Amino acid sequence: MAMASSIQQARGARGETTTWMKQVREVAHDAEDCIDIFRYHNGHRHCSHNPIVGWLHKIIHPLKTLRAMHNLSIEVRDLKARALKVSERRLRYRVEAAFGGASDAYTAGRSSPDYNHLERQLPALNIDECRLVGVTEKTESVIKLLEDGNLARLKVVPIVGFGGLGKTTLAVTVYKSPTMKGIQTRAFLAVSQRYDLRILLESLLRQLIRISLRDPSCSREETFKDPLRGIETWHISEIIGKCRAHLEDKRYFIVLDDLWSPEDWENLKVVFPDNDKQSRILITTRNCNVAESCCSDSHDLIYNMEPLPFEESKKLFYKKVFKLDKCPPLYQDLEVISDSILKKCSGLPLAIVSIGGMLARTKNKTRAEWEKVCDRLGSGLETSATIGGMRRILSLGYHDLPYNVKACFLYLSVFPEGYEIKRGPLVRRWAAEGFISGMHETNLEEIAAKYLDEFVSRSIVTPTRIASTGLVRSCKVHDIMLEVITSKSIQENFISFVGKQQYNTTGHDKIRRLSIQTDGTHSNREQENHNTNFSHARSLIIMCCSKKPLPISFVHLKLLRVLDLEGCWWLSNEDLKQICKMSLLRYLCLRRTNVSKLPKLVGRLKELVTLDVRETSIRELPETATQLGSLKHLLGGRYRHYTRISRVKLFEPHEALTIPHGLKNLKSIQKLAHVDIASSSHAMQELGVLSQLTKLCAMNGEYGGEKWKPFAASLNMLCKSLRHLSIIHWRNMDMGLEIFLELKSPPIFLEQLYLWGRLSVLPPWILSLSYLIELSLRENFFDGPLLRQLGKLPSLVSLKLYHESFVGTTLCFEKNLFPRLKQLIVDNAPNLDELSFDGGAPNLERLTLAFEREPAKGIFGIENLPKLKEVEFFGEVIFDSLVEGMITEAKIHPNRPRVYREN
């Protein structure tokens, strides 16, 4: 009876605490609204060229300001009264006592991590940790199911198992395996529970249709034309027809990851013709009925995914906590409690990695600390491997986070299931939301980036693309972890959702952040009946919607700070006129929308920090854009991934932004990419005064190098600020870059450099760049001792030799060259006969290769690369003899590097 009474009291205390915390949040949010409404009225000035209208406005505006101040005083008085009531309630119910629980005491006792000295062990994560626990054997088993019988007919193999077992990891490994021979085209599709059929089919076609960068039958201008431009406007039946036509005469390999229902398979299988070419489809699903429905042929077999055996679970756990296969002697006292924790994880890699990531962050690693964690797990998954038990384990990752990082954690729920989250946009949004607090002149985006690194180290997110420097370029949130984050977000009224029917947000007093995620299945009537008031929203995220999901009027969203409309093809130029009246806006993303022109009203966005117009038809900025004094990031243009390897991409040279006169007014600008220097010599002359500029990407498509002169002069003035520089002169028969051979003051702190264009010799100042980490070259037509020159760069980690950057016959990495190089890309060096490693690049981890023709002498010396982890072949043509030779050498290599092929 006493225990039951104690439990009831604890529940009551938690209820009072929850209510009190909600009231505190609402008072704080309303106070912020009050201030921002006044700022909106004060800053929302009318601009007119008519002198009479301007004169009238000068009289009327102060009167409106007085009215706003009067309303503000009333609001402040009401807020003060509400705050006093909330404070009295805290004292009356002794809310402080409710915070005395063990779990909160543990969290409060934890010291925040030192983000300035965060361990950067990220490169190891590029090889999935599950590979260490039996993935090789599982991969071989699945490939055997795919290949057994050598059937000409289309064969489907489902991988079935509950969430967190590592089905996707296994599917990715099989997909990249070079032992799947003869595959002519392939695609990997993340389906998820609520997928948009159009977006999925667009992704499939983009992966299937790849036009060679250099087609001799095309003119140079025609070569850069995107055959899929305007795909957003195509009818679904047209996309299906193009997919089938492309697959009809090829042996293809398709992965459909995370299929949820038999109906999903019925919708998708029409895309894949049975062409008697030994084509294969691999499916992952949690549902046995789905797996059986996919196996329409007697030759189709199901692979059942099993939990990890206990010994393999221990190996994965210790690898995550200590970076070792077993418990170190210093921590032998933790073995018993480790076994208890692992029993509650029931062999699920996701649970093991999540708990291991959290324990790896503990400073002292004492038995008492770990016992508290074990107790907080409760029964976990020990009795039954349920999703509920998994959620309990993953929730610990949230409670263990420092307070200032929790908002960033909850924010991950704005992304749809299976969405690849890019590092740059994420950290810029965190900063714009106000989640990051800096001191003095600290760069908020740099702090935010360290928070993301923290999530990676704790396995809250999974890296999907990692740079050679160890920087996580993009990541994903596991669907079960996403459920946990979404549930917490709704519980705390942090984010509201439209489109996630399983999450009810009707109890929210006011919507502060809104994420609209639709799959194209909602009826118009359902949308019209959604009459929620969004006027208090600070963030609106509508991602990848081909049709307007709700009748939202932008004119009513006066308090908005963050607006992300990426992939919203319905957005019009007319909508932009309303958006540009949101004077408090800090972050505006129009990427992959149908807009073609920014209105002059954009100059009103005085607080705008990020303007992202990439992959749109916007080529010119209005003159008023130079009034954006707070702007730090101006991003335009379009990249083309002419292979599926995200590390190999091409900037479309016709897509750069034209910058108007007055660029010098953008005093805060840090990133400017990509700009057309041929369009405005005045703007290029003004570049030199932008002392905060760290990233600059400029191109010139005109013949002759005269247009580069004012740019080169400004470059000399930016010698201390620039960290990332791209110079593109894509007329490859023109020595347009010769002006850069001699710079009076080269950018000495440069970390990344990309040079596209013909040069007679390598600019000598490049060899003095002691901080240079990444160097990319394209169509420079270098010959001779290129590697001997570049090999002396002390900090170089990544070298990318793109098409025709090197036209010699031999690339030899000699001893004492490239001491820190980790990544090498050789992309279609046209005359290459031999690639050899003779003691140079001793730290090379990743080798990525594409050849127009098979090198006459071959590839030699990978045994001299002791740290090699991965060899990847890509391109229109992949020579089987090269791949098979590399597989043979990899088997006897001490580090057993993985060999991939992308075609």
From TrEMBL:
Residue stretches making up the Disease resistance protein winged helix domain: 414-485
Annotated GO biological process: defense response to bacterium; innate immune response-activating signaling pathway; plant-type hypersensitive response
CDD domains in the record: RX-CC_like
Start and end residues of each Disease resistance R13L4/SHOC-2-like LRR domain: 536-898
UniProt entry tagged with the keyword DNA damage: no
InterPro entries the record matches: Apaf_helical (IPR042197), Disease_R_plants (IPR044974), LRR_dom_sf (IPR032675), LRR_R13L4/SHOC2-like (IPR055414), NB-ARC (IPR002182), P-loop_NTPase (IPR027417), RX-like_CC (IPR038005), Rx_N (IPR041118)
Database matches in SUPFAM superfamilies: L domain-like, P-loop containing nucleoside triphosphate hydrolases
Keywords: Coiled coil, Leucine-rich repeat, Nucleotide-binding, Plant defense, Repeat
GO molecular function terms noted in the UniProt entry: ADP binding
Domain NB-ARC per the UniProt entry, residue ranges: 139-324
UniProt xrefs under Pfam families: LRR_14 (PF23598), NB-ARC (PF00931), Rx_N (PF18052), WHD_DRP (PF23559)
Keyword Nucleotide-binding recorded: yes
Sequence ranges assigned to domain Disease resistance N-terminal in this UniProt record: 16-51
Family membership: Belongs to the disease resistance NB-LRR family.
The protein's name in its UniProt record: NB-ARC domain-containing protein
Organism: Panicum virgatum (Blackwell switchgrass)
